[in-house]
Amino acid sequence: MKTSIATVSTSGELPEKLEAIARAGFDGVEVFENDFLAFDGSPADVGRMVRDHGLEITLFQPFRDFEGMPEPLRSRTFDRAERKFDVMQQLATELILVCSNVSSAALGGIDRAAADFHELGERAAKRGLKVGYEALAWGKHINDHRDAWEIVRRADHPNVGLILDSFHTLSRKVDINSIRSIPKEKLFMVQLADAPLIDMDLLYWSRHFRNMPGEGDLPVAAFAAAVADTGYDGYFSLEIFNDQFRGGSTRSIATDGHRSLIYLADQVRRARAVPDLSIQPMPPRAIVNGIAFVEFSADEEEAADLVRMLETLGFQKEAVHRSKDVSLYRQGDIRLIINTDRHGFAGSSFAIHGTSAYALALVVDDATNALERAVALDAEPFCQPVVPGEVEIPAIRGVGGGVIYLIDDKSNLGRFSEIDFLPVEDETEVVSAHLLHIDHVAQTVAYDEMPTWLLFYTAIFEAQKTPMVDIIDPAGVVRSQVVENASGLLRITLNGAENRRTLAGHFMAETFGSGVQHLAFHTDDIFATAASLRQNGFKPLAISPNYYDDLEARFGLDTQLSDRLKAENILYDRDEHGEYFQLYSPTFGEGFFFEIVQRRGYAGYGAANAIFRIAAQKKHLRPDGMPKA
Ligand SMILES: O=C(O)c1ccc(O)c(O)c1
Ligand SMILES: [Mg+2]
Questions:
Q1: d(Cα 10, Cα 252) in Å, to the nearest integer?
Q2: What are the tens digits of pLDDT across the range 480-509?
Q3: Ligand 1 atom 1, closest CA
Q4: How many C-beta atoms surround the C-beta of residue 2 within 10 A?
Q5: How far, in Å, is the centroid of ligand 1 from the Cα of 145?
Q6: pLDDT given at position 276
Q7: What does the entry list as the binding residues for a divalent metal cation (predicted)?
Q8: pLDDT of residue 625
Q9: What's the gap between Cα 31 and its chain centre?
């Protein structure tokens, strides 16, 4: 598959955009007229700059309000087109995108439009240029690719073809099967964009909320499959108008875009019997069967505090690493590793972020395949030297520059703790809190980064994203979206912070970036767990008594249950599937915390309780936002 992206899709100045686009691995770019006009160099300079990056100019755009104009406007639009043709020849690019007329002066009439395109085709042909026609979803007369195709067909000119744009087709729910009857040589370009489903004016939705295929809710893969069925072997080109992208990191948007196209091509290849789109086959999405461990990096002092908190939670030290300052704590199937080694990646991670859960290890069906797929999808592989005899676990970089280890049972990876660690006898008097496994990992990211990580996880791992929910913090809103698999063995909540006064925003600001902000452990008996925690001297996060009065009213709970919940500071929620119980630790450091949950069939994450939990946690931070001594 040949990949392209419109310059409008990323932030920055033209040279910066081109650099990032080339580095991300694209083959071509659509040059947007405004990006070009805002640049000081001549059209020939721009053309050279593009080619110096090894990129091809896939088209020049947009040319507006062309077809169906009455005179004297008609003559003027042709003059305008000739001027753009001059520019294209200097840029050394062949194709111009003409989008359907939105002017109130446009007369309509399919044959009139076809005649205009025939003449434009004649003029373009004289210069060796081509014209592609795209139906804007809000075009005055033409707003459906089927009508645009009829005009192109009637224009009957070899230099005039159709341009499809998934947004315009899918936003209007135009039947994508209609694409399958278009001859491939008349498809001059295929533009791709996704978007979240929001009920709003089409133009506004298109200009501000488009996102990369896979980041939104539109069936872009089905659209691309219909295109592939025509035998189309030209460019797939991203054209993303998005307010966040315009202000975001040029490089990461370009990388996300490239990843989205590779993932899309993989989906199309899998959906179809005949492998084509000429993309490299890659292993399927990795199946995640659990979290093998979470690793913290810390210094000695903070590690001691962390260990004290873990002990109150019922964890015991099980083993120490053979060659590094690393200890493994265990309860049920939960393994937490504390790394105080000053060398290697853990040390540098500590130097930047302070104490943090910088690495996650996922148990996958096949670690080698998972790594291969991740790398094919532009993930950055991670490795650091290991002492001979120790297990080298395949890994990639994840959220906030952290590490995702990939472990399976097919090799000795699954035995890393026996091979790399020596068992120890923990003498501390601790009772088990009946914690069984990690229920979910909550990662806090900047709001702008959310689509990046949703795409990252869902492209590499067999998992779905759930709809976005709002978490109300007394100081603002935090958006939360979950990546989870059908078995429930992978559950990651991504929380997007918009300002630094929210608990999530404070965490991001003070730990210098995105990362794991909380870990939730599962128990089968929240009250038994609460009793054991008390024995261990655990102090739960104190919840306002008013919360429990409201619970009784909201859910019709009997007083006995609500009194018990109140006595233990347990939060409660219910959905159509069942009940949910939550118990929190106070915050640790800059807002990190632990949660204990019991799910009785419940599918969510207790979003409605978050405001009460956050209000309580904020009491543990000093008014200036710093943790209390
Ligand atoms: O929003 C627009 O005007 C616009 C312009 C050119 C395109 O290719 C498009 O999809 C939208
Ligand atoms: Mg378009």
A1: 9
A2: 999 999 999 999 999 998 888 888 888 888
A3: 207
A4: 16
A5: 13
A6: 60
A7: 134, 165, 191, 239
A8: 47
A9: 26
Q: What is the pLDDT of residues 469-486, one digit of tens each?
A: 988 888 888 899 999 999
Q: What is the dihedral of CA 469, 474, 477, 478, to 10 degrees?
A: -70
Residue with tokens 């869902």: 458
Token pair for 518: 């909380």
Can you read off the two tokens belonging to residue 628?
A: 């209390």
Q: How far is 626 from 622, CA to CA, in rounded Å?
A: 5
Angle between the N-to-C axes of helices 43-52 and 14-24, in degrees from 0 to 180, rounded to the nearest 10 = 30
Q: Which domains does the chain have, with CATH numbers?
A: 2-271 (3.20.20.150), 288-423 (3.10.180.10), 435-618 (3.10.180.10)
CA 191 to ligand 2 center in whole angstroms: 6
CA dist 419 and 329 (Å) reads: 16
Closest CA to 592 of 353, 342, 404: 353
Question: Which atom of ligand 1 lies closest to the CA of 167?
Answer: 10
Stated pTM of the model? 0.95
Residue 238 C-alpha to ligand 2 middle, in angstroms?
9
At 565, list the tokens.
Answer: 């919940």
Choose among 340, 357, 348: nearest CA to 303. 340
Q: Which residue's CA lies nearest to atom 9 of ligand 1? A: 136
Q: Specify binding-site residues for Mg(2+).
A: 440, 518, 595
DSSP 147-194: HHHHHHHHH--TTEEEEEEHHHHHHTT--GGGGGGS-GGGEEEEEE-B
Tell me, what's the ipTM?
0.99
The environment of the single-atom ion ligand 2, i.e. residues with CB closer than 5 A, is 165, 191, 239
- DSSP 8-state symbol, 466: P
**Ligand 1 pocket mutation pick from 64, 134, 204 by most atoms within 8 angstroms of CB:** 134
